[in-house]
Amino acid sequence: xxxxxxxxxxxxxxxxxxxxxxxxxxxxxxxxxxxxxxxxxxxxxxxxxxxxxxxxxxxxxxxxxxxxxxxxxxxxxxxxxxxxxxxxxxxxxxxxxxxxxxxxxxxxxxxxxxxxxxxxxxxxxxxxxxxxxxxxxxxxxxxxxxxxxxxxxxxxxxxxxxxxxxxxxxxxxxxxxxxxxxxxxxxx
Length: 188
Prior knowledge:
By secondary structure, this protein is mostly beta strands.
C-alpha cells in the first residue's frame, strides 16, 4: 500500500528495496524556501541495522501490511517483555531493542498495540497519554510565575519531565508518551 511520506509515524513499517524497516522517528521539515521534506530514522527488521532516509513530503512510500493487534503487558524478565492477547490468551515475547526507551511507561495490564510480521514483533505503539506519579521535584524558587516557568521532576518509573511549579512529590500527572511532555494533573 502506497502512502505519502509525510504520513509516516513511529511504529509504521515501510518496504524499501525488498526489505522491511520499522520507523523509529519521523519528522517533517517545512523550510521557508525550497521543498518540504520528511526525515525518517528506521531499523531494518531482518538484521537490526539503523538507517536514515529523507523523502519529499509528497513522495509515495510503500507501507508494508503487518498484523496489528491490541495486547496487555504482563511482565519483563531476562528474555524480554511479555505481552498477552486478551481474546486468545496467546503470549508473545518482545525483545528490548523493539521496546527501546518506551520500557519506562510499561505497567502491569497496560494495553498497547503490537505490530507483528510473520509471527515476530517489529513495533510497539503505546497509548498517547499515560498517568504517572511524581517521586521527586526541585523546590519552587520564590518569585517564579506559574504561567511561564516549569521545573524538572522525576517519576516513579524513572521518566524525567518538566512540570509546573504547583506539582510536588506524590502527585499523579498525565504525560504524552511521544514527546514526554506534561499534559495535565491526573483526575483520579
